[in-house]
Write a structure and sequence with these properties.
about 230 residues; 6 helices; Nucleotidyltransferase, domain 5; 5-stranded mixed beta sheet; 6-stranded mixed beta sheet; globular; alpha/beta
Length: about 230
């Protein structure tokens, strides 16, 4: 009887530990939103579970009430990504609930105006930026790339709308446009709401590393797709 009375809208918990923030958002079935956003370049592992507990308390829910989990998958910090993915996957396995992964660049894209083509530029340090073009929020027009700073003007033209931590750089280098209303970093509340609309089968919670690994295993064998932004 309880399941029959439950609202049809899923309860979503979104987590992001990909880089310079540790943040989470919880959207209840009635649309009520709670979020916590903390600048944190390190120490995500020590904070993430406490943050989830605080979000649940704010929403007056338990972890068993969550219908699906959404987590950023990268590119980003190797350690930070693993923290968020491990937490989301752990909850999913323990509760037998779906876990969805959304790329960091795709999550940043969600702050763009509806139906507007744009580009996301994310500082990867070492005079490099992660880059991806989108036809509309959350709709990639091409695969993500790692660009040297001196390549960026070949991918971004004057007047292009650019989001992400590299938007200022693109504005100075390429006369790109910045959306003053869009967050420089990704909006975890938008990520949570976006996660409610996705087909879990198409968004596996697998890490996305665009840059090759710096450290090589002692065995000499390569580790596929692993790397870090810092």
């Amino acid at each position: 009887m309880e399941n029959e009375l439950r609202p049809q809208h899923p309860v979503i918990l979104a987590l992001d530990t990909a880089h310079q923030y540790c943040q989470g958002a919880l959207v209840r079935a009635d649309g009520e939103l709670h979020q916590i956003v903390e600048p944190r370049s390190r120490g995500h592992a020590e904070r993430i579970l406490g943050m989830v507990d605080e979000l649940l308390a704010l929403a007056r829910l338990t972890i068993k009430d969550i219908d699906r989990f959404v987590v950023t998958t990268g590119p980003g910090s190797f350690t930070g990504l693993r923290v968020g993915l491990a937490a989301a996957r752990g909850f999913g396995v323990a509760l037998n609930k779906p876990v969805l992964g959304v790329s960091t660049l795709g999550a940043m894209s969600l702050s763009a105006p509806p139906q507007m083509p744009h580009k996301v530029l994310f500082d990867a340090r070492r005079d490099q930026h992660y880059f991806q073009a989108f036809a509309a929020p959350g709709q990639p027009a091409a695969a993500p790339q790692l660009l040297e700073n001196d390549q960026i003007d070949s991918y971004i033209a004057s007047g292009d709308l650019v989001l992400g931590t590299g938007a200022d750089f693109a504005e100075q280098k390429c006369a790109a446009k910045r959306d003053a209303q869009a967050a420089e970093w990704l909006d975890v509340a938008r990520l949570a709401r976006y996660g409610a609309l996705l087909d879990a089968a198409n968004y596996p919670p697998e890490p996305l590393y665009v840059r090759a690994a710096d450290a090589k295993p002692q065995s000499g064998k390569s580790i596929a797709r692993e790397g870090q932004a810092s």
